[in-house]
Each structure stands twice: as C-alpha cells, then as structure tokens.
Amino acid sequence: MGCLPFVWLMVRTMDWKANEELIAWGNEHLGAIPIDGIWSPDGSGVQYKKTDVNEWSLIFMYNHPTSKEQHEKFKHLMEACGYDVLEGDGVQEVVPPLDPQLHMQEEYERKQSVAQGWACPECEYPLANSELDMRLDEYVEDTEIELSNGEHTQIELWRCLINCGGCGAVIPMEPDDYHLLAGDEYFMRWNSNGYKYSALTRGDMKDLADAGIQTGTVLGSTHEGERVPPWMWGIYAIKTKLFERSEEE
Ligand SMILES: [Zn+2]
Questions:
Q1: Are 104 and 139 in a shared domain?
Q2: Which of 25, 67, 136, 192 could be joined to 161 by an S-S link, Cβ 3.0–4.6 Å?
Q3: Looking at the structure, do residues 94 and 18 belong to the same domain, yes or no?
C-alpha cells in the first residue's frame, strides 16, 4: 500500500544509482505486492501494475519531464531487483492540469480508485467490501519529524485496524490509506469503549444548532482516559452506542 516516504525521498533526491539499501527495499516491498497490485509512488506521476511474479508494467504516466525521469529511475530499480519492466501500448499518458487544485483533486481520485482494488494479503478478498466502519485505531509511538522550515516537532504515529471480510484477518493500515479506502465519513469516526464518536458535516451541525440540539462533544487528545487519534482532535462529535444499529435489527 503506502510506500515508505524516506525511500521515496532517496529515489527522488539521490544522485541516481540503485544502491544496496534501495535494492533491499525493492526486493522486500515490490515482492510483497501481489500480482495485479498497483504501485504508485507519491508525487511521481507514474503508476505500475504487477503483471506477473517477475514483471511490472507501466500503466500510467504524466506527460511531464519529471515523471519521465522518475520512470527511468524506477525502471532501473525494478530491473536491479530482477523484474522485467513493460512499457507497452497500454500506458495511459495524461497531461497534468495547470490548475494546482484540480491537479491535487485528480491525483486524489486516482489514488482512491487504486485503493478500491486493494485485496487482503491472506485471502485476496477485496478490502473495500469489508466492514470498514468497524475500525479500531491504535497508537503506535511518538516520533520526531522535520518541518519544511527545518524545525523539528513531535507527532503521534497511529495505525488503523480493520478485519478482512473474507477470512477475518486483522489488517493494519496507515491512517491515510484507510482514509483513501473508506472515505471521509468513516475516517472521521472514532470507536472507543463501545461508543462511536462521529464528526458532523457543517450542514448537519447547522441543522442541529437550528433545532437547539447541542449534545455533541469536542474531542481533545484524550477522552475519558483514552488517547484520541490526532485526526479527531478538536472535532465536534456525536456519541452513540456502537452496536445500536444491530440491536434494532
Ligand atoms: Zn482475508
């Protein structure tokens, strides 16, 4: 799913040569992607599909000099890892839009459609068909990151756990990946101690305020003794019993 950002940074900035470290990374991560899986390194404007155990095919590329340059590097890396790289007629070449907002929108939609094809690594069941609303969020650790102005800041790393709808395996995902797969509404919910905290849309909040109903909770970094995932901090949420829906049935 997500590609390790530090490796991507290396690919992007290093004086290009696939060194041992990158090849080791490639063997592990490219090898772990199942046949028909898609690899789309962030911000590169290229996308590959694993078309056989030892074969990757370029399926998408921006008509942009940087994308072509990136492709040459990725191709080099894949070949160094023992893969054949196909660049056949099936490649979709797209001129990136000049409007940066439209560009981001299109990139996001492209990633979303890739996420819809993710399969369980155990049984290949399509993850998009699993019960995505029954997600559990797990705190991993604190880590320090460097900001664009050179300063360092502490952030919390979290992961989202879902159950495969096919075999029941617990699938850990990066929160961004879960967000791509499940969409805004599910992402902006937090299940804790048998309760569900759901963020409201602005329209919903307005309707409730107009009706004089203000029973929501603003979530902090902890709530009732539990850590709250960072993307829910400062959110006005409505608390409901987690299993209310199934009790009604
Ligand atoms: Zn499964």
A1: no
A2: 136
A3: yes
CA of 2 to the centre of ligand 1 (A): 19
Last residue within a domain, chosen from 54, 86, 115:
115
Give the distance (Å) from ligand 1 centre to CA of residue 114. 18
Of 65, 93, 115, the domain-final residue = 115
How far does the centroid of ligand 1 lie from the alpha carbon of residue 98, in Å? Answer: 41
Task: Give the pLDDT confidence of 229-245 residue by residue, as tens digits.
Answer: 999 999 999 999 987 55
* 238 Cα: distance to centroid of ligand 1 (angstroms): 32
Closest alpha carbon to 198 in 213, 212, 186, 206: 186
Q: What global pTM score does this model have? A: 0.71
> Could you report the per-residue pLDDT of 130-181, keeping only the tens digit for each?
999 999 999 999 988 877 788 888 889 999 999 999 999 999 998 989 999 9
The alpha carbon of 196 and the centre of ligand 1 are apart by a number of angstroms equal to 25
